[in-house]
Specification:
By secondary structure, the protein is an all-alpha fold. It is 82% helix and 0% strand. It contains two helices and no strands.
Amino acid sequence: MTFLPYVAASYAIGIVVPGGFALAAWRRLLNTTRRLAAIDPRQARRQEAARPEGRP
């Protein structure tokens, strides 16, 4: 009997599980960045400062 399937499965789990955690963290980071940009008052100030004088 060979243990190759068990070894291959453990290596696959060792790659897939951390990869899934990394993907979930990356998605949460993007989502949080978008939400923060939507409520950040500094963004409005930057846009206002970039406008030329006398223009709305």
